Amino acid sequence: MVPSDPPAPPLRRRGARLRSAVLAATVDVLTEHGLAGTTVGAVARAAGVHETSVYRGWGTRENLILEALSEQADAALPVPDTGRVRDDLAGYFGTLARLLATPQGEALLRLSAERDDTLPDRRLPYWTDRLDRATVMVRRAVDRGELPPDTDPVLLVEALAGPLFTRALISGAPLDETLATRLVDLVLDGASAPKPGA
Amino acid sequence: MVPSDPPAPPLRRRGARLRSAVLAATVDVLTEHGLAGTTVGAVARAAGVHETSVYRGWGTRENLILEALSEQADAALPVPDTGRVRDDLAGYFGTLARLLATPQGEALLRLSAERDDTLPDRRLPYWTDRLDRATVMVRRAVDRGELPPDTDPVLLVEALAGPLFTRALISGAPLDETLATRLVDLVLDGASAPKPGA
């Protein structure tokens, strides 16, 4: 990278606008028509651009879908760093619960449960990527001495995300505000621990 | 029930054989063709019986599907009662993990994630019924004083089942033998508790 780069020329600024329009259109088409209905043609029509522009920018339909979903989720699901693992987890999984309670959030979860023969391992890595990122909250807590060194960050994150995914996909039980907090308390303190003041 | 009932007459025994053949065929058709492909006609063909016999016995396609799935799951997923909640939960969720690792188990889970406009609330209550039944292990532990009276049995069961469902539906991570035991230890003891011998 050259520090003295001049401001982006008009062509590149048009490129940035095209990029965000195509990525937003991809999320719209995915939410409305599912993975199978998300073709490069459908996205190009929704974004009002030529198909060739999409192929030029992303190469394949799969690259396009993955980039659109990752970008959207990273914006919607920031990983907090408050210095207290309980607050970090309650914040992150509270946001996740609210996201899954929206029609778009549920649709994105359903996409990850679909099998698609055009994808490398037939699964969208969208949610698994999000859960991988969430383990950093647990790793930081271990580094601070807040959690024991033998803590399994993946298992802890799965125990928090799994019930939220299950409510969205299987049971339809409400993804209410307090659910994430109650799950964090359960997983950090354990069911068999005496409750403070109980 | 009348204790002096005579042995079932031939007609009724034929009925029992028909019933089990139709229910087994229903599970086969569901596993192979999904919810949408499970019509009364397809089940009747697979069982080698007349469609009218299926309608006479079950009334609707929905009743047939629900009875077939419930019967199968109750046989495959018994609720243990060892007197120790840790062993009960590890046994039950270990069996569930092994069931979900089979193609048939994964197919049954996918059915519950599908939406079907012909069902009362558009969801198969198959897995939610199973989780409801599993809460009895937690309730018994509260009655024995093994867990505190303010324990939430539904939340505890969700924290154990959710990660298993997530691995089967979303991440594809292995449903190995030790997973259920590690989850039970996490949810009963809590991540922040010091481990014995650690």
Automatic annotation (TrEMBL), chains A, B:
Single Gene Ontology MF annotation: transcription cis-regulatory region binding
Residue ranges for the DNA-binding region feature of this UniProt entry: 39-58
Keyword DNA-binding: yes
Signal peptide: none
All residue ranges annotated as the HTH tetR-type domain in the record: 16-76
Keyword terms, alphabetized: DNA-binding, Transcription, Transcription regulation
Pfam family, one: TetR_C_11
Family annotation (PANTHER family): HTH-TYPE TRANSCRIPTIONAL REGULATOR RUTR, TETR-FAMILY TRANSCRIPTIONAL REGULATOR
Protein name listed in UniProt: TetR family transcriptional regulator
Naturally occurring in which organism (per UniProt): Streptomyces filamentosus
